[in-house]
Design a protein that fits this description.
Elements (H helix, E strand, L loop, with lengths): L16 H10 L4 E4 L8 H11 L2 E9 L5 E5 L3 H13 L7 H4 L3 E3 L5 E4 L12 H10 L3 E4 L9 H5 L10 E4 L5 H7 L8 E3 L16 E2 L5 H8 L6 E2 L2
Parallel strand pairs: 1-2, 6-7, 7-8
Antiparallel strand pairs: 2-3, 3-6, 4-5, 9-10
Helix pairs in contact: 1-2
Length: 237
């Protein structure tokens, strides 16, 4: 549920849509989500590559709030992800410096370079956490706090707790810590659905950890049901 492409300045240039899908298929993953920093511009190409290879790709992005907390925004429809991208871009100051932050490459499903994103994708938006969750929900998406066990850009490290009133749909634990250990370490996440993701920036990281879902089909709506533990759908890590 959390893979970066070569669009993220911290992502390896080898993380093209085509290679992400090929590696995901090799790792036995049925469904993935491309969540680049503050952008969804490589999502459509990855979805096309996924359809050709039999891997379901969810549109998403990893948004950095003004509190410098990372959250995953996942959607069932590409147009909703792009609408959220427009909101993010309108509240994302600065321009990228390639020499300082790295390349931000837009690539199609054939691994052809289509351009470079000029926005400062590595930066924080001017959107508060509550604003992000509200916008994502208005666009029929789900919002999950990223890597809550990490000391940087995690909601617990930056805020000290996970506010229930935010209305998050879940929390993500990184590959660095088993979910059960995270539940024992961070008591504030006990009431939230927990997933674990690779947060892959390099091909070899794809499939390092994954979340198992009990679903009828590998779709966004089924995952939404699993996050709420409804209709027999559930998370099985």
């Amino acid at each position: 549920m959390h893979i970066h492409s070569c669009l993220s300045p911290c992502g390896d240039l080898g993380m093209s849509p085509k290679t992400i899908v090929a590696k995901s298929r090799e790792a036995g993953l049925d469904i993935i989500a491309v969540c680049d920093h503050n952008s969804s511009e490589n999502v459509e190409a990855t979805m096309r590559a996924g359809r050709m290879a039999g891997v379901n790709v969810l549109p998403g992005m990893e948004i950095c709030s003004k509190e410098e907390v990372h959250v995953l925004a996942l959607f069932g429809k590409l147009e909703n992800a792009l609408s959220m991208q427009a909101v993010v871009y309108a509240h994302l100051p600065g321009e990228n410096d390639i020499n300082l932050w790295g390349d931000q490459i837009i690539v199609n499903e054939k691994d052809e370079v289509m351009g470079e994103n000029p926005h400062l994708l590595i930066g924080a938006t001017e959107l508060g956490l509550s604003d992000i969750v509200t916008h994502v929900h208005q666009l029929e998406g789900v919002c999950i706090a990223s890597h809550i066990d990490r000391p940087a850009f995690g909601i617990i490290s930056n805020l000290g707790f996970v506010p229930k009133q935010l209305g998050l749909d879940g929390v993500e634990v990184s590959w660095r810590m088993p979910i059960q250990t995270a539940r024992e370490t961070f008591s504030g996440i006990k009431d939230f659905s927990c997933i674990t993701s690779s947060d892959a920036h390099y091909l070899e990281d794809i499939g390092k950890v994954w979340t198992g879902f009990i679903l009828e089909a590998p779709t966004f709506e089924e995952i939404r049901l699993a996050l709420t533990d409804k209709a027999g759908r559930r998370i099985e890590v």
